[in-house]
Amino acid sequence: MRWVRTATFYAMLLVSTILLGLTAIAIVLVTRRSDWAHLLGRLWANLNLWAAGVSVDVHGLERLDPKRPVVYAANHQSWFDIFAILGKLPVQFRWLAKEELFRIPILGYAMRLIGYVPIDRSDRKKAFQSLEEASRRVREGTAIVIFPEGTRSRDGVLQPFKKGGIILAIQSGQPIVPIALSGSYRILPKGARLVRPGRLRMTIGEPIETAAMTVEDRDGLIDMVREAIRRHLTQREGGSLNAEASAAQARSAAL
Question: How many domains does the chain have?
Fold first, then answer.
């Protein structure tokens, strides 16, 4: 059964990426409306969740303010975090995404046209330029989604946060909204290929204001955001790091 479900998912991923990606490109080129293309992205994500047999329980939607630009910060266990956020977060936003994704034919071009911001963590200068660009967009009214861990967790356990995305939020002066994703690791762990149908839970936390903060406050803000996410994870997913160890590891991360 898992082989059938996996084959269905990858077939849908391929077909939906090509068809909806080309449609999104055409919409942006003709209408200049990237918000319409974002709605196609939501459709793409929901189709792939359906094909994989994955459902998402969403909590905390009442905490969203679609009219206010914010930085959404989520933990990262699996590819399915992307599908869950894009498909189930009912607001307009753009991603701060690793540059490798922008090299994928059709998908990468569509991402650029829609307004996603690439970040190359292998090049410190370019990475900071990307963070500055994302920060500017938030100040101008665009919500941005980041994964502060920088990459997917190999074991599903919450990792130390890198500083870059947190600095982005401080520089924007807008709130950080924590998003906790629980259960996606079981569906498709990093490095795995077979999909395991199931349920994941997405919890939207209370916004954390950054307007009065400076870059010197970044370590304390890292702890606040990390703990806001951790409280909505299982004990295993949250890990055993206490606040002091978490802060020390976060401060040692470069971006």
Answer: 1
Name, in order, each residue with C-beta under 8 angstroms of 2's C-beta and a sequence gap of 6 or more: 194, 195, 196, 197
How far apart, in whole angstroms, are the C-alpha atoms of residue 142 and residue 135?
9
With 60 as the cut, is the pLDDT of residue 44 above it? yes
Q: Please give the pLDDT value at position 240.
A: 64
Residue 28 lies in a domain: no
Q: Is 6 within the bounds of a domain?
A: no
Instruction: Tell me the pairing of strands 71-74 and 144-146.
Output: parallel
CATH classification at residue 194 = 3.40.1130.10
User: Does residue 13 fall inside a structural domain?
Assistant: no
Residue 12 resides in a domain = no
Contacts of residue 6, Cβ cutoff 8 Å, sequence gap at least 6: 193, 194, 195
Q: How large is the average pLDDT for residues 21-37?
A: 94
Q: How many CA atoms lie within 13 A of 149 on its CB side?
A: 22
Residue 59 pLDDT level (bands cut at 50, 70, 90):
very high
